[in-house]
DNA sequence: TTGAAAGCGATACCAC
DNA sequence: GTGGTATCGCTTTCAA
């Protein structure tokens, strides 16, 4: 190499001339772009905000820039975004992908891909395992005397939804409870609100919602119909992203989206540095947070 | 040119060979990257989510990809992000920049820049003018009998904060009301919650918060102290991003972040196509949404 | 060790 | 009109 002082001299000269290496030219030459892409189904869903933030922070610390894609809950749009972004990035993070397993597996460029909340064998993925806590929620409701409950589902292509749905159904069967399924067209406040009448008409005494947003919409819908929470119906959310900010405070399943984002980025950085891997599933725990929207079931004379 | 059939033949061949023009090589050659960057102070602030979504949607429709930067409310970090991103993009959108006017004016690359909620003469900018609605909020409180109110401020480097603060102060003076200022360290739920005791100790009968997040934190803080809203104290928020989701529903100033994002992107696309401009300010209206957190001032014997 | 030259992949210019 | 070629800025390889 050169002597230390020469290096310093050069650096000084470079700085005084305002020289900056051209990232684009470098990328063309080396194939390494210094960028990564993060794709989510809906930026406005509060679950993704902390996740995005965590990914951004970790990427920035590693000197990488991030492209953000919003698929708008649509697999075709997601596919298109990937196509447009992957040639300009070194790696991809797909959060709650709405694509099919086959579409996800399809090779794209040659950069590593990390999945969040999507369980595709052979790929790197971080999974927020809400099943145990969802089962705990069912038992919690059973202990409060509820025997007929509703699961207000999310998108069918959502792994989280399948995971929670299965756990609720199984736990319900084990506790000899009746579990009714009602879909929320979209995992949003509006979706939850729209589902409220259908939920009410089942005469169930409790509802477990796909996520906090749906739960919050459900609460608003119930309030509109004059149905008291938790007096007339108990409600459980999922994600704990706005639970302390509802009134009454929402009983929910905490799922730490920031941790999921950070971990995904960590794995991606590792793949970027150490090369490909056989594809590992990283599990993240959840916890049932019992707050104020769950209470003893109303007695039978109040029902249908 | 060539005959139509030849063109079709070529396209077929290209498609069957799986050919895609290399965006990076093109960028190196032409200097046009097909990317734009959006920088916000905090992705998790619900004001920015619809804004980001709108920018993303419009950019995507125009065939552009977007880089997202989170400055974490820090001007130095913002500066760094701009430095890293601007060489790879055709244009920049700076939302609620925390940098000084001089820093913002400093030339960066040669792409157009559009500011959101930052009033720098000679630059393109879209401004959500909350001043009239803030004044209306003060008059609304006056009509309800409030004579001593608090303004819970946001970041000092925020143009929106300066705008709202000035409007509240002026309107207060005009109505012969006492206006006390209390800062929220950060425009967040936590910041609002932390400010609650200080607000309470002023014995003011109403508070206008910098934004909905601060207002929500304030409501939670009041609840914790056993202070009723709006019974003991009235609260007004700003932005209308979660107003219908608080309990009681928040009286607030609606500021349409999605419209701001869409308009900023529209202006940027125009500059990209039509070249530089002298720098125009585009104003966006706001509206006072009167909901349930404002009520008549408690009578005097309750104070002091 | 150091310097010179050949890509990377597309564009744009300029002779033919 | 159209084909050939220099160029964008950096990396990497290969001679000297």
Plain-language structure description:
The structure is a homodimer of 304-residue chains. Chain A has 304 residues and is an alpha/beta fold. The first copy, chain A, folds into 2 domains: 21-128 and 257-285, Rossmann fold, CATH 3.40.50.2300; 131-255 and 288-300, Rossmann fold (3-Layer(aba) Sandwich), CATH 3.40.50.2300. In chain A, 41% of the residues lie in helices and 18% in strands. Chain A is built from 10 helices and 12 strands. Chain A has helices spanning 4-16, 23-30, 48-61, 75-85, 101-105, 131-143, 159-174, 189-201, 212-224, 257-274, and strands at 35-40, 65-70, 91-95, 113-116, 124-128, 148-153, 178-183, 206-209, 234-236, 252-254, 281-284, 287-289. In chain A, the strands form 3 sheets. A 6-stranded parallel beta sheet of chain A has the order 2-1-3-4-5-11, with helices on both faces. In chain A, strand 1 (35-40), helix 3 and strand 2 (65-70) form a beta-alpha-beta unit. In chain A, helix 6 (131-143) runs parallel beside helix 7. The longest helix of chain A has 18 residues, at 257-274. Chain A is elongated. The N and C termini of chain A lie far apart (85 Å). The interface between A and B is large, with 40 and 41 residues.
